[in-house]
Design goal:
With 510 residues, the chain is of the alpha/beta class. The protein is built from 15 helices and 19 strands.
């Protein structure tokens, strides 16, 4: 029987990094005073909650709104101070259309952005008096607030004092029960993935990634961990993965998280690229923005966090996360352009660029996933190429699949979760482009559709009968500008999408 390395958890950085406000829910009664956040419907006059607040302020709200020229377009806001009996009124425009689940989350995220920093005043968010879908609930507003409030200040001398943060009350006609029992756990998982991506490379490397993730699962039931060290990987023939980690003094690892609580439900394996720092290896990257390569492990963080969310809420689902972890460094022992590696599948790989390393670790990981688990569905997530950004910009991830039903399901889940993806081409021509003369496949440096060629490389190690999809998230893993539920920085894109996909297609009662 194969022996797996057991990791002893020593409590490494186990505390949450971002200070969190307490969120509670009360029945739908307009607060009498204090600080309030209310939806403002785009219309000719005040309506809904704004109308009720205007009456409470003896018409002062309407005068202030007219003077400011505020009309309530979706996502716009206006903050007013000292309009008695309120100390502060934040108006968030919700447009004039029926509100969706994503609108509710964005409303909460915008409320967080308006009320970030220290405050001794309770934040009262009113979520009623608007035309909304059944799933545009108070719980979704609370989720949006949590995600929008994320910040990372571990290494700052001037940290935000958690005791200075006021609590948050969501006033609505639903009780918000789904937040405490479900969505707060999803938020915690997203925080974990963002933390892992934001941490510097001298803190997060293959082994410390494992330690941090295992700590996050402390006390969670029905979870089994396996860790492959370099000896295990050598026995398995993972020559591609080992080749990537060869230049670093920090050895590569494979982290496997099994959560199999779904009985006879179809199984899903999520494979994540986990390059904890990517210099490009011998094919050294330019210095500009190289510091962001500390987050080249976001795919591994996303798949680990997705399983954490499912396991913490005890979802009836069979899901396995496999994190392919390595550090890509230049040294005398690093692989070189022109080298040939032998993968676990037996296929040989010619190295054209050592900076095309993510597809190397994933080639062994997806093959291992098929051999060990025979999953009904295999999905990999990776910050794989700069080409995907040039193809779809910062608003979409790239989705590649040979299986139309799966692609359709994933696109719908991504849209519902507020993490949209675009289905990009993956055709025979892309597989033909990676066939060199010296080995079975070549790993990179091929001009043209780089994102599709990268997907084809990974797909070369996936059996054509295996239902499989590849997400290239290099376009969306870092946000240059804040969005309602994603502050500027690392987004953890994919946790919400994968969570939604599991709920829709791999649980008996989503």
């Amino acid at each position: 029987m194969r022996q797996f390395l057991c990791v002893v958890v020593l409590g490494l950085l186990s505390a949450p990094i971002s200070a969190e406000r307490d969120i509670s829910f009360v029945a739908g009664q307009l607060p009498e005073d204090g600080s309030i956040v209310i939806p403002f419907i785009e219309a000719n006059g005040l309506s809904g909650v704004a109308s009720a607040v205007n009456a409470r302020t003896d018409g002062a709200l309407e005068v202030a709104v007219q003077e400011a020229g505020f009309v309530g377009a979706m996502g716009t806001n206006l903050s007013l101070f000292g309009i008695a009996p309120y100390t502060r009124i934040d108006l968030i425009g919700v447009g004039s259309e029926r509100l969706t689940r994503t609108d509710a989350e964005n409303f909460g995220g915008n409320a967080a952005a308006l009320n970030n920093g220290a405050s001794g005043t309770r934040v009262q968010i009113v979520w009623q008096g608007v035309d909304r879908d059944a799933d545009a609930t108070a719980s979704r507003v609370a989720l949006g607030f949590r995600l929008g409030a994320y910040h990372f200040d571990r290494y700052l001398q001037d940290k935000l004092d958690p005791d200075s943060l006021s609590d948050v009350v969501v006033v609505s006609d639903d009780d918000g029960a789904a937040f405490d029992s479900d969505l707060s756990m999803l938020a915690d998982a997203i925080y974990l993935a963002r933390d892992l991506s934001t941490e510097p490379g001298n803190v997060i490397y293959p082994q410390s990634f494992i330690d941090r993730v295992r700590n996050a699962f402390d006390g969670v039931r029905s979870v089994r961990f396996k860790v492959l060290d370099e000896k295990d990987m050598d026995k398995l023939g993972m020559g591609a993965h080992l080749g990537v980690g060869r230049g670093s003094t920090r050895p590569p690892r494979v982290l496997i998280i099994e959560y199999l609580a779904g009985g006879s439900a179809p199984s899903v394996v999520l494979a994540g690229k986990g390059i904890t720092f990517d210099t490009g290896g011998i094919s050294l990257k330019p210095k500009q923005n190289m510091g962001r390569m500390k987050a080249d492990m976001t795919g591994a963080a996303v798949v680990s966090a997705t399983v954490l969310a499912a396991a913490r809420r005890e979802a009836p689902v069979n899901v396995v996360a496999i994190a392919a972890l390595a550090e890509n460094m230049p040294s005398g022992s690093a692989i070189r352009p022109g080298d040939i590696l032998t993968s676990m599948s037996g296929k040989t790989i010619e190295i054209n660029s050592t900076d095309a390393e993510g597809r190397l670790v994933l080639s062994d990981t997806v093959y291992y996933a098929q051999r060990e688990y025979q999953p009904d569905v295999l999905i990999d997530v990776a910050t794989l190429t700069g080409s995907v950004y040039r193809a779809v910009g910062p608003d979409y991830a790239g989705l590649f699949s040979r299986h139309e039903t799966l692609a359709t399901q994933l696109l719908a889940a991504a849209e519902a979760a507020g993490e949209p993806a675009w289905h990009l081409p993956l055709d025979d021509v892309h597989f033909e482009r990676i066939q060199p003369s010296a080995a079975d496949v070549i790993n990179g440096g091929i001009p043209g559709a780089g994102a599709s060629i990268g997907a084809a490389f990974i797909g070369s190690f996936v059996d054509e009968s295996q239902v499989w999809a590849h997400f290239d998230i290099a376009s969306v893993d870092f946000m240059e500008e804040a969005r309602p539920t994603v502050p500027e920085g690392y987004s953890a894109w994919g946790v919400r999408m994968l969570d939604e996909y599991l709920r829709r297609h791999h649980m008996p009662n989503p």
